[in-house]
Amino acid sequence: MAIKQDLLDQLNERRKEALSGSVGADKIAARHAKGLMTARERVETLVDKGSFQEAGMHVNHDVRGFGFENRKLPGDGVITGLGNVDGRLVTVISQDFMVSGGSLGSKHAQKMDEAMTQARTLGTPVISINDSGGARIQEGVKSLAGYGKVFRNNVLSSGVVPQIALIAGPCAGGAAYSPALMDFCIQLRNNSNMFICGPEVIKAATGENAHPDQFATAAAHSTVSGNIHFVAEDDKHAIEIIQSLLSFLPSNNQELPPHQLSENLKLELDEAMNSVVPEDGKTPLDVYKVIERLVDKDQWLEVQKDFAKNMVVGFARIEGMVVGIVANQPSVKAGCIDIDASDKGARFISFCDAFNIPIVTLMDVPGFMPGLAQERGGIIRHGAKMLYAYASCTVPLVTVIMRKAYGGAYIAMASKDLGGDVVYAWPSAEIAVMGAEGAANIIYKKEIAAASDPKAKYKELVDDYREKFSNPYLAADYGFVTDVIMPSETRYKVALSLRSLMSKRVITSPKKHGLSPL
Ligand code: HXC
Questions:
Q1: Of the listed 123, 140, 159, 174, which one is catalytic?
Q2: 140, exposed or middle or buried, with CB in 10 Å at 0-12, 13-18, 19+?
């Protein structure tokens, strides 16, 4: 006895309706004309062919009234399920703007809740594609409650499974807080906006004329607010960024990241690294040149590249080992750590620590950024986030002091006393409380004033101070430096240290949670 044909036909019909989002070809064509994929095309492009296992395709809306009695909202405007990316299982959530603007109703939220709860049980990264008009107005408080569930899931999953958000359309009001609670946000350069209050609300509340380009687009968020980590030219590019990001991450906090370790390390010198430090002490070093020589070929994914450029962070492999790189960039603001750089660095460090990714720190830092705006803006509190993030790390920390290592900023950049496991210094390292010029002005103030030629005396004292402190040997003598190494030895020494530190285990005191200086 075979199943009745009309039952099969009915299922096929329902599937067809759900897969099309109940919209006509004209709507899909209009979307394509804008350069956008549909919600389902995004899922299909992200996951390995044939691997998607959808959950809740037949879910419908729960709107009462508003003429919705005879309306169907396929999947309630969101596609959820499991799929493989490069053979590894991930949880996918893709909001469907073509179904009632992807607005979040109670069933939509229920699907997201179930997908995210399951992600924690299975230990799968969550990829959430946001394309929604926000809380479904017709469902009122039910949709607000739905957002509450989503936010709580984001928090419960934080540090358990990696969470990646794609802002692929409107993302307004409280809805922006789900991406903000996730680990990485990617935003489409065109056709997408993210804000709490839109231009009309801003105008009504403050009288300001604000254009979305100033505060809501990928360009604004990647450079000014720092709310996003990557800008994508289009959906395809966004999905490539997600795939590349996943290639560096473990699926959950119980796993190691996907190292690709070779059996034998290549212990070769890289003579060209000796030339990256400019001979003239006043010419800034370009840290990208160091990173390029330090990491494996084509194994570098920079995070937040256009925000706080004085601090460079990103994922890489060194002799196959996945690492997070945290580096001062002396060619921007002299590499000083300011408020934005602190926030950027601290967040990245905390992510690496949560997901077992060792950190390699490249130090060339003259200090925390001086200035009234910085002090009034809370550089004490923001800078403390860097200290907190590094000091609470249990992952391996390997530090290379390339040039300047001054004052509190030296301590902050994974110095030995903050928790650095291995601290290398190049012969060009200057480890001191501050630069020679500033130090001489303070400690030799009276001698300089009393001298017959104050300028000559000042120069003599600066040179004297520099000779004493502006080198790595005093710090090495005190034991604050593991070893002074040639720049040419850096790659293999760092690779060797990383391998030796793989078995690092730290047992910390039990506590409910610490209090990062937010
Ligand atoms: C119900 C919505 C909707 C919403 C859009 N739609 N947003 N339905 N609730 N929030 C529906 C429209 O009615 C329309 O339905 C379809 O989606 C497409 O919308 P359009 O306006 O035609 O599209 P477009 O011109 O592209 O404009 C998109 C938009 C606009 C910019 C997103 O729709 C808009 O401003 N929506 C409201 C955004 C908003 O203020 N949301 C609330 C945010 S507050 P039909 O049936 O015609 O296809 C919030 C609180 C969260 O989210 C709180 C968390 C704590």
A1: 174
A2: middle
Q: Does the active-site annotation cover 316?
A: no
By DSSP bridging, strand 300-303 and strand 311-318 are antiparallel
356: phi > 0 → left, psi -120 to 50 → alpha, else beta; which? left
The closest-lying atom of ligand 1 relative to the alpha carbon of residue 198 is: 40
**Distance, CA 357 to ligand 1 centroid (Å)?**
40
Which domain-ending residue is among 184, 211, 246?
246
Residue with CA closest to ligand 1 atom 37: 133
CA dist., res. 230 & res. 238, Å (int): 8
335 classed as catalytic:
no
**Does 380 share its domain with 440?**
no
CB 318 within 8 A of CB 346: no
409 belongs to the catalytic site: yes
Predicted TM-score (pTM) of the model is 0.96
Q: Give me the catalytic one of 119, 409, 439, 440.
A: 409
Tokens 């290379």 sit on residue: 400
Specify the range with the lowest mean pLDDT, choosing from 72-76, 121-125, 243-247, 349-353: 72-76
Best of 97, 99, 100 for a ligand 1 pocket test (most atoms within 8 Å of beta carbon): 100
Looking at the domain assignment, is residue 260 inside a domain?
Answer: no
Q: Please write the tens of the pLDDT for every residue from 258-294.
A: 999 988 888 899 999 999 999 888 899 999 999 999 9
Residue-number span of the structural domain to which 487 is assigned: 271-429+471-503
> Are 383 and 494 in the same domain?
yes
Same domain, 139 and 275: no
Closest protein CA for atom 34 of ligand 1: 133
Q: What CATH number is attached to the domain comprising 332? A: 3.90.226.10
Domain count, the chain: 3
Same domain, 200 and 330: no
385/446 same-domain check:
no
Are 438 and 483 within one domain? no
Q: Residue 200 class from Cβ within 10 Å (0-12 exposed, 13-18 middle, 19+ buried)?
A: exposed
Contact criterion met (CB below 8 Å) for 17 and 74: yes
- 265 within some domain: no
In-domain check, residue 31 = yes
Q: Which residues contact 108 (CB under 8 A, 6 or more apart)?
A: 76, 77, 78, 95, 136, 146
Ramachandran quadrant class, 21 (left: phi over 0; alpha: psi -120 to 50; beta: rest): left
Do 422 and 306 share a structural domain? yes
In a domain, 86, yes or no: yes
Q: Are residues 406 and 461 in the same domain?
A: no
Tens-place pLDDT, residues 307-326: 999 999 999 999 999 999 99
| Distance of alpha carbon 292 from alpha carbon 294, whole angstroms | 6
Q: Which of 140, 92, 88 is nearest to 115 (CA)?
A: 92
Q: How far is CA 11 from the centre of its chain?
A: 43
